[in-house]
């Protein structure tokens, strides 16, 4: 059997994998800083850096414009990158992958397209997206602001209502909670496959089935920001209408992300941004748009970033996403076990024994998350403290901030242990009882 | 002295727990709410001035935040209650100068009193706002009251 645990990803050892990442190779420290903030942004392997550089050195030229051979080569590489991403996330057609700046941008493209359709832009084709006053947009209380604020804007523009799926005392929600708020007036259901705060994993296909049964006019929009980089996903298999994720969290470059959409929907959704390269015929006061993906890709595109992102997808594919997930599950289990034994430290999110992703957020009783973060920083641990762009979730939990440790393919068991050990010292440092016998 | 102990001086940890002035204030002349959106720390600070608006008769605050911001509000309470307004504002300015010092220089202990414990914060750019939160609220509340 292939060992998959905190020391391995599939057949490869973490020690070996870390050599792929210049950020770790460069450190000559006896005790290097533990990077436990990959859920915010991940480190990049040489394969990604080299792919960008190789394109820039050999094939840099405009894409989809002009007739030169150089443009042909550049365009091919750009479109091959799209095909790599389509395969990676289980799209049926390369056209279903639209380049975006990041997940936030991709979610805005969907929301703004819906808002535009609601005032008649896009004509009869786009009428299926139009919302009316009194229509309902269902979101969970756990959403990242990136999957909340764009919907607030849609509600303001259309008179549609935001309907929350409430979270429990651990910040989690269930399929039943969601089903209980669905109505025939539900027109959008948006949620994260994996919460960036709680690590809750949502059974997406089950949610889609429930939505189709009870709210047949609803679009299902998936925030896949924390799932695509860490676990196998299958957008077409899930049956979602749209999905969004960022390159920088999946070992890829900044400035690139993906909007996935079912082709027939993308072909009808009004493009939020208009401009060069998106059109068929333009007169002085009208324009007709190309089919997806070109209709959304206005202006000069981030080509080297797309090529870098494709390299990241291939790098992860070579490791196997099942193996990546298993490695991170082992990290979470190890951290949870350690944290559960520390008095005065509470786990936010699914409790030990329940399915969760490779990130763990905690609240330390009596110590503000910023003080926890400062202490951990001093101990050589890079973690995230704050509201993680999820204020409504923290408000629902009655706390202002949490401390989060998150893993990726390069995270070691020793780093998990260091996090637990340092966390165990926090309350003592701040003069609170450790409860130790 | 290790860095972390330099930041979290004993005085700071004590004030973060004891929290002088953490209360409502009956008959306040003005109040001001300050919020730090990056960390969610917040404070509402209230002042009562004398009839001539020259002295701070009473100051109190209510808030939620990290040990640095809460301890700073507590020390502020000790330092400015009963003080002439101009002196209190001068103290706020001196405190600000110390926090911007990046750990350089020797702050005026005579003037700053316990507030000198926050000198170490000046080396932590991300925490300066925490320490300043209550002092900024004081400046704003006094301006409203006058
Ligand atoms: C769940 C989730 N959604 C959306 C985002 C936004 O990603 P980006 O800032 O790359 O657009 C993040 C990242 O912070 C996230 O974790």
TrEMBL record, chain B:
What is one Pfam family matched by this protein?
NifU_N
Recorded hits in InterPro entries, A to Z, give:
NIF_FeS_clus_asmbl_NifU_N
Q: Say which domain of life the source belongs to.
A: Bacteria
Name the coiled-coil region(s).
none
Check the record and name the Gene3D superfamilies matching this protein: 3.90.1010.10
A GO MF label: iron-sulfur cluster binding
A single GO BP term for this record reads: iron-sulfur cluster assembly
Q: Which residues form the NIF system FeS cluster assembly NifU N-terminal domain?
A: 8-130
Kindly provide the name given to this protein in its UniProt entry.
SUF system NifU family Fe-S cluster assembly protein
């Amino acid at each position: 059997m292939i060992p998959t645990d905190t020391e391995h990803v599939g057949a490869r050892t973490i020690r070996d994998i870390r050599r792929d990442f210049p950020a770790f190779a460069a450190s000559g420290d006896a005790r290097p800083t533990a990077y436990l903030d990959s859920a915010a942004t991940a480190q990049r392997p040489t394969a990604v850096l080299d792919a960008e550089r190789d394109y820039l050195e050999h094939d840099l030229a405009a894409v989809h414009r002009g007739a030169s051979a150089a443009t042909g080569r550049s365009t091919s590489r750009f479109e091959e990158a799209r095909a790599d991403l389509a395969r990676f996330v289980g799209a049926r057609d390369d056209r279903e992958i639209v380049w975006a700046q990041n997940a936030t941008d991709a979610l805005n493209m969907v929301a703004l397209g819906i808002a535009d359709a609601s005032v008649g832009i896009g004509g009869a084709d786009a009428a299926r997206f139009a919302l009316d006053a009194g229509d309902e947009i269902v979101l969970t209380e756990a959403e990242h602001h990136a999957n909340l604020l764009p919907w607030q804007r849609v509600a303001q523009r259309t008179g549609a209502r935001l309907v929350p799926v409430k979270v429990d005392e651990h910040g989690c929600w269930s399929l039943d909670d969601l089903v209980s708020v669905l109505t025939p007036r539900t027109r959008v259901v948006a949620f994260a496959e994996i919460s960036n705060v709680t690590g809750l994993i949502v059974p997406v296909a089950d949610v889609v089935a429930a939505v189709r049964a009870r709210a047949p006019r609803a679009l299902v929009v998936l925030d896949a920001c924390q799932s695509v980089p860490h676990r196998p996903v299958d957008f077409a298999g899930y049956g979602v209408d749209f999905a969004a994720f960022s390159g920088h969290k999946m070992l890829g470059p900044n400035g690139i992300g993906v909007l996935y959409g079912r082709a027939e929907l993308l072909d009808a959704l009004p493009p939020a941004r208009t401009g060069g390269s998106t059109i068929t015929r333009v007169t002085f006061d009208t324009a007709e748009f190309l089919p997806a993906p070109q209709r959304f890709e206005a202006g000069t595109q981030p080509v080297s970033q797309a090529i870098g992102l494709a390299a990241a997808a291939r790098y992860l594919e070579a490791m196997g996403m099942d193996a990546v997930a298993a490695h991170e599950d082992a990290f979470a289990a190890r951290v949870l076990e350690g944290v559960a034994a520390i008095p005065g430290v509470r786990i936010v999110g699914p409790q030990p024994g329940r399915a969760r992703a490779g990130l763990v957020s905690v609240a330390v009783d009596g110590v503000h998350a910023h003080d926890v973060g400062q202490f951990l920083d001093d101990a050589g641990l890079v973690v995230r403290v704050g509201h993680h762009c999820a204020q409504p979730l923290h408000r629902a939990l009655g706390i202002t901030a949490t401390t989060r440790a998150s893993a990726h393919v390069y995270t070691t068991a020793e780093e998990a242990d260091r996090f637990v050990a340092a966390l165990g010292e926090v309350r003592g440092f701040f003069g609170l009882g450790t409860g130790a016998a | 002295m290790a860095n972390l102990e330099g930041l979290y001086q004993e005085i700071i940890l004590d004030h973060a727990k004891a929290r002088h002035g953490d209360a409502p204030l009956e008959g306040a002349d003005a109040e001001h709410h300050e919020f730090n959106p990056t960390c969610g720390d917040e404070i509402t600070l209230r002042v009562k001035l004398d009839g001539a608006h020259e002295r701070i008769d009473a100051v109190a605050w209510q808030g939620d935040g990290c040990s640095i911001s809460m301890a700073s509000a507590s020390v502020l309470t000790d330092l400015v209650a009963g003080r002439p307004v101009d002196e209190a504002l001068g103290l706020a300015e001196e405190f600000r100068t110390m926090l911007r010092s990046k750990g350089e220089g020797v702050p005026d202990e005579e003037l700053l009193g316990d507030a000198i414990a926050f000198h170490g914060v000046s080396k932590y750019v991300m925490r300066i706002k925490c320490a300043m939160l209550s002092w900024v609220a004081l400046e704003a509340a006094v301006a409203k009251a006058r």
